[in-house]
Amino acid sequence: MTKQEAIGVSQTANVKSVMTVRAAAKNGPGVKRKLYIGLMKFLMGLSITITCGLVLFMIGYVLYRGVPNISWKLVSTSPSYLDDNIGILPDILNTLYIVIATLVIVLPLGVGAAIYLTEYATNKKIVGMIEYAAETLSGIPSIIYGLVGMLFFCQFLSLQTSLLAGALTLVIMNLPTIMRTTQESLKTVPQSYREGAFGLGAGKWRVIRTVVLPGCIDGVVTGCILSVGRIIGESAALLFTAGLAHAVNGMIDGLHSAGATLTVALYMYAKEQGEFGVAFAIAAILMVLTVFINLTATLLGKYFQRRKNQ
Predict the structure, then answer these.
(1) 4 versus 309: which is more confidently predicted?
(2) Of 46, 199, 254, 302, whose CB has the highest number of CB atoms within 10 Å?
């Protein structure tokens, strides 16, 4: 067979294969393929239905059991063993104190680390090691954080069992979240913005402060709100570091004394005292706070996105 004949045979085979593919596409998938696609769609729909059903059932059940037990007396008084009164006002204040203390410490650390890794660091190996360490921190169980916080902050640093020790433990837990969300937001700022600012004679820090950070503020806010949600919902780490006290204190005195947050109080009322009505009431309050935080994060993200696009 000559070379031209071989080329002709190859072209004929290619034409036949193309025609076969077109015919198969025109006729559509076979019966087995259609059955397989239908089965996969059914299984995916079933999975979505089961997942959404479980979530809605859990939310509905908690609200059904918790809302009737919520009263003004419950949320505005302190617990007292003398008159057999149950109140969660100290737990609400302790939750507020620990959220504020954690954010005041973790925001500068997380945002500063993200700025350094994205804008200043040049050694890719060191950046990779730091990012790997941050990812590892985000995957450690919270009970381990509680044990480390108890040994280091409460005993080694002599902070004793206090809200400040709990806040410092939560700083370590939430640092990866703030850092990673800020990093991803910094990467979305176009490089041309930086180059334009440098061309006008601005320094490195001035460019970051006036051009880069305003362009990624939505990511910082989102990471902050996500961290607030985790702080409010944390209990295992705070059992070992913040304590179980139910006393009303001011901001400064409260940080240096033991105190139970809402999640810790929920555990204590349900597990230790058997007050399931109060536990469900606290769970309903926490669930409403979680929904509010998620909605706030969504709305703020959309607001800053619109401002960026203007």
Answers:
(1) 309
(2) 254
Q: Who wins on pLDDT, 243 or 16? A: 243
Q: Which of 99, 307, 118 is nearest to 217 (CA)?
A: 307
* Cα separation, 239 vs 142, whole angstroms: 11
Facing residues of 186 across strands? none
CB-count burial class (<10 Å; 0-12, 13-18, 19+) for 138: middle
pTM exceeds cut of 0.90: no
C-beta separation of 66 from 281 below 8 A: yes
**Percent over 90 (pLDDT), the chain:** 12
**Main-chain dihedrals φ then ψ at residue 85, nearest 5 degrees:** -105, 140
| Per-residue pLDDT at 24 | 52
Residue 47, C-beta contacts closer than 8 angstroms, at least 6 positions apart: none
Q: C-alpha distances in angstroms, 136 versus 133, 141, 279?
A: 5, 10, 33
| Chain segment 94-112, per-residue pLDDT in tens | 888 998 899 899 989 988 8
pLDDT of residue 9: 46
φ/ψ bin of 70: left (φ > 0), alpha (ψ from -120 to 50), beta (otherwise): beta
How far apart are the two ends of the chain, measured CA to CA in Å?
69
Nearest C-alpha neighbor of 227 from the set 184, 175, 263, 180: 175
Is the C-alpha dihedral spanning 270, 275, 280, 285 positive or negative? negative
Angle between helices 276-309 and 217-233 (to 10 degrees): 180
Contact predicate 221/181, CB 8 Å: no
**C-alpha span between 178 and 234 (Å, rounded):** 17
Neighbours of 249 (CB within 10 A): 18
Q: What is the DSSP string of 69-108?
A: G--HHHHHS--BTTTTB---HHHHHHHHHHHHHHHHHHHH
State residue 21 phi and psi, 5-degree precision. -65, -40
Q: Within 13 Å and on the Cβ side, how many CA atoms surround 266?
A: 22
